[in-house]
Amino acid sequence: MAGKPIEMRNKKTKEQLENLKTQVEETLSQVDFVIGYAKGYDVLHPTPLFVRSTKDAQALIWDDFCINNLATYLPSQKRPGGLFHPHEKIGLVVKGCDSRAVIQLLQEGIIDRENFKIIGISCQGKVDVKKLKNRVPIERVENAEIKEGSIELTVDSRGQKYPLEEVLYSKCLSCEYPTPLIYDRLVGGEGSLRSKGPKEFAQDPYHDVEEFEKKGVNERLDFWEQEFSRCLRCYACRDICPFCYCQFECIAQTRIPHWLSQKTASKENKFFHMFRAMHLAGRCTECGECERACPVDLPLLLLHKKMNKKVSELFGYKSGINPKLRPPLIIFQPEEKNIEEEKWE
Amino acid sequence: MSRGNLEPEKEPVKNGTPPKIIAFLCNWCSYVGADMAGTTRLKQPEGVEVILVPCTGRMDPLFPMKALVEGAEGVLVSGCHPGECHHQDGNLYARRRLEVLKGFLPFMGFEEERFSYTWISASEGKKWQQVVTKFTERIKSLNGKKD
Fold first, then answer.
1. Which residue, A13, A118, A340, B126, shows the most beta carbons closer than 10 Å to its own?
2. Which chain B residues contact residue A282 at CB under 8 A?
3. Rounded to the nearest 5 degrees, what angle is found at the Cα of A13, between the Cα atoms of A12 and A15?
4. Which candidate from A220, A310, A330 shows the least CB-CB separation from B100?
5. What is the per-residue pLDDT for A192?
6. A50 — contact with chain B (CB < 8 Å)?
7. Complex prediction ipTM
8. Interface list for B 102-131 with A (CB within 8 A)
9. Taking residues A299-316, what's their average pLDDT?
10. Residue A307 with chain B: CB contacts under 8 Å
11. What pTM was computed for the model?
């Protein structure tokens, strides 16, 4: 495994943090607060930080675990009774994948470009704590550092080592946009795993969808039946999603119309996740926050990736790339060249 | 098709109960077409529940989804031919949405034959009969495979 890019990676992350702090401090003069990352309850779980002063900015961190998609906060800006005072100006630290969510929200007219500033930060892939969970007791991890293509964890004062490609987020392994697509200020130049990192990391983004499609129809039915029987319907997936901004009007909970009962049986759970996938068709930017937030580890991204794959096959559209395009399901072509209708003869 | 007094003669049920099929028909064309099939006494399969929609543009992809999850064995949507929508372009929106749904259902473990959509105009009673007969046969053979 190529060692050099990874060593550079560590050094670069530290440089990026210094740069980030300066950029945040400078942005503070233009906005009311900046949302970034701070140390959470342990080294593996950074938490969002609201920076309102230069003093706060010293608590900012940037490491291999800063995964939260902070764009989730943005729809709150225009919403009455939202998290913020109406029309408070926001600064936001976004990674490449998060920037797609910002673009998608702009495209949907949910946020106004003049109301927020974006501090883009190039990302080299983040470590998936759920993948670590299968290997070590994560609540006892004291320190985590990336060295020479592997992650070194200190658990109960003893060192443990795992190859990086085993513990990085799947989305990072197929990352196409390590540098944000939209920003006012940019921290760090190129940071792609694909261009700078070992090539064998790179994966096809839809390889898992294609694999799943190869299974028989009954096998697929049983798989989802089993998975959704575990769902608690806590709605964490919905609440963390940047595009699930319907709030109390979400049809999962409305009584008029009453789409869905509150029963947490497999059937109801299945319908909930199916309609959520339908509502996110061609909108989801595959940030994977739903999967990360899920307390029972449902493979939710698989659903949304399938939808996006279908939408891109039919309409050649990819979400969160161009704020000027219109979502494919609210427009049409008189002649659809990729839709082949059934003939019935 | 149970509306109207001129119900076609019922075929005796042979292999157990007929499959549960939900058909969403557009008010301006397919519903009238299906009605015409009834009034001209064309023989149609049993077990098809028709739901009237004001336009296929009203078709939320969640309707067929909900029907299938709740136990319908097949869902058929029919509207005006593209370009002939009573509301100008409802069916063109519907085509995109239903096509996405059609691609998604097999992924969730529903056979792809269980959902389909088609275009039938008000004068095509004969076509409705053919489509609905074919669709029912398809669902029957699917069910046969399962048992």
1. A118
2. 100
3. 60
4. A310
5. 45
6. no
7. 0.89
8. 103-104, 106-111, 116-119, 127, 130-131
9. 95
10. 100, 104
11. 0.90
Peptide bond into A334 cis (omega under 30): no
Which three-class secondary structure state does DSSP give residue B85? strand
Other C-beta atoms closer than 10 Å to the C-beta of A302 total 18
CB contact under 8 A, B62 and A259: yes
CA distance A149 to B60: 48
**pLDDT value at position A13?**
80
Q: Hey, is the C-beta of B13 within 8 angstroms of any chain A C-beta? A: no
Domain boundaries along the sequence of chain A: 7-132+169-201, 207-330
Q: What is the pLDDT of residues A230-240, one digit of tens each?
A: 999 999 999 99
The span from the first CA to the last CA of chain B, in angstroms, equals 27
Residue from B30, B59, B73, B104 whose CB has the most chain A CBs within 10 Å, to mutate: B104
Residues of chain B found within 8 Å of residue A313, distances taken between Cβ atoms: 103
**Residue-wise DSSP of A142-178:** EEEEEETTEEEEEETTEEEEEEHHHHB-HHHHT-S-S
- The alpha carbon dihedral of A190, A191, A197, A199 has a sign of negative
